[in-house]
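Sequence, please.
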């Protein structure tokens, strides 16, 4: 590890100054003048895309080998076969409160036996107090022995000797020294956890050690992945809080671990991971509602201060997340700026915004494969722009795809219902008209002066 760290610093030193400025411009202190920020950005971009530094960064992103660390297995053993999902948690001693056992209980009790067969939970006890680690292991093994024996729970520790320096680090954002040490060590804790999990599963889910799970969260994640098949993504988010409920490809974990180590002292882990996502060209946040995970900790792991953060999108007993099967979008509405039609159908926080619609205008979703739809939900308008709703419109489903001058469409449509107060939501379609659908169309039936925002289009389908 010592050799690795020297190599990482050497290979990254030439890139660091320009790359880091580029990565964290949006997170700088507000005291920096906008003119200086713009000049810094231009300089960073020029240096970042120079031939030498571009090659260095490509080498970082192309890393596929794991970091050479000898882990201590405090409980459990390496999995014998690759799982569908690895759930990773890192935990340290808190000054007030401890929620790790409650979190593990939620993971296991909210999963069915079938789901547990495809899952492995890895806990990194990252505290340097080995006595505390031993006490925690004893309590966990007493309560979750059957999960350890079954290979569903592994507890590890990365020895302190593998950690880079944690004292005397740069005080970015005017953080106090103990705060810098805490967040820098946390980055390394997560990097070492991801490094071990790299070969355990197809997908990796990051949780914190003070989390409540929704029922059958793994099945909900499976459904989302089925809906994203064929599309590019780096991170899928199942909670809007911190570093909770973030999903990654297992194959991305080695370079993600290297990335966290290279910039471990620069900023908190959730900020770094947002930059990682952006640098791998996933521009928009892809977050699903309702949230599958809730923050339950009352006291922070840093200084034991109060932390009342809650995810108001969390639903414990609801995992019916929409599929939004792969499709192409067509509309004759005049699009405002870059609020393009695909944003209404995606899982990002953005939306479609079109100029004043006229009677007969349409917004059509053409599926790449025939779909058996069970539910359709369309929401228009925003809280801050309540006039930009669909005042009069109907929702239709179509069959018999055909090629048109504007792209694709269906030649035969059936009306399902009308919009009420800018919304449409109908369930139980799979038992009636929702079978073998090839198109879904929103058709405006009355012109309006106000513009139209289509915030979300959610479609649930039945899989054979």
């Amino acid at each position: 590890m010592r050799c690795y760290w020297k190599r990482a610093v050497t290979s990254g030193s030439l890139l660091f100054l320009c790359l880091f400025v580029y990565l964290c411009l949006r997170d700088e202190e507000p005291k920096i003048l906008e003119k200086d920020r713009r000049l810094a950005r231009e300089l960073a971009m020029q240096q970042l895309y120079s031939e030498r530094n571009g090659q260095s960064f490509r080498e970082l992103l192309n890393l596929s080998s794991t970091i050479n660390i000898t882990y201590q297995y405090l409980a459990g053993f390496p999995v014998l076969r690759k799982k569908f999902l690895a759930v990773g948690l890192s935990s340290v001693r808190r000054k007030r409160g401890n929620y790790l056992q409650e979190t593990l209980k939620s993971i296991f009790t909210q999963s069915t036996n079938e789901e547990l067969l495809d899952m492995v939970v890895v806990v990194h006890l990252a505290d340097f107090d080995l006595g505390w680690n031993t006490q925690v292991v004893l309590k966990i093994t007493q309560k979750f022995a059957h999960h350890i024996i079954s290979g569903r729970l592994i507890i590890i520790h990365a020895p302190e000797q593998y950690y880079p320096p944690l004292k005397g680090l740069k005080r970015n954002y005017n953080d106090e020294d103990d705060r810098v040490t805490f967040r820098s060590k946390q980055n390394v804790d997560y990097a070492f956890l991801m490094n071990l999990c790299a070969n355990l599963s197809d997908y990796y889910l990051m949780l914190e050690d003070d989390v409540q799970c929704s029922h059958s969260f793994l099945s909900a994640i499976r459904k989302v992945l089925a809906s994203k098949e064929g599309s590019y993504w780096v991170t899928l988010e199942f909670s809007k809080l911190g570093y909770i409920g973030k999903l990654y490809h297992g194959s991305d974990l080695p370079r993600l671990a290297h990335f966290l180590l290279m910039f471990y002292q620069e900023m908190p882990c959730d900020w770094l991971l947002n930059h990682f996502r952006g640098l791998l060209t996933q521009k928009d946040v892809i977050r699903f509602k309702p949230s599958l995970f809730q923050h339950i900790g009352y006291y922070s792991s840093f200084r034991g201060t109060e932390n009342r953060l809650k995810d108001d999108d969390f639903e414990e007993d609801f995992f019916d997340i929409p599929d939004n099967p792969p499709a192409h979008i067509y509309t004759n509405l005049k699009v405002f700026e870059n609020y393009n039609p695909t944003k209404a159908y995606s899982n990002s926080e953005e939306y479609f915004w079109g100029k004043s619609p006229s009677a007969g205008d349409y917004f059509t979703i053409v599926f790449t494969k025939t779909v058996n739809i069970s539910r359709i939900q369309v929401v228009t308008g925003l809280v801050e722009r309540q006039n930009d709703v669909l005042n009069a419109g109907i929702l239709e489903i179509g069959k018999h795809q055909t090629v048109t001058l504007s792209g694709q469409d269906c030649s035969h449509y059936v009306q399902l219902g009308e919009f009420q107060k800018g919304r449409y939501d109908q369930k139980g379609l799979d038992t009636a008209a929702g079978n073998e659908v090839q198109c879904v169309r929103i058709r405006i039936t009355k012109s309006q002066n106000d513009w139209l925002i289509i915030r979300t289009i959610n479609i649930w389908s039945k899989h054979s």
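The two ends are 49 Å apart (CA to CA).
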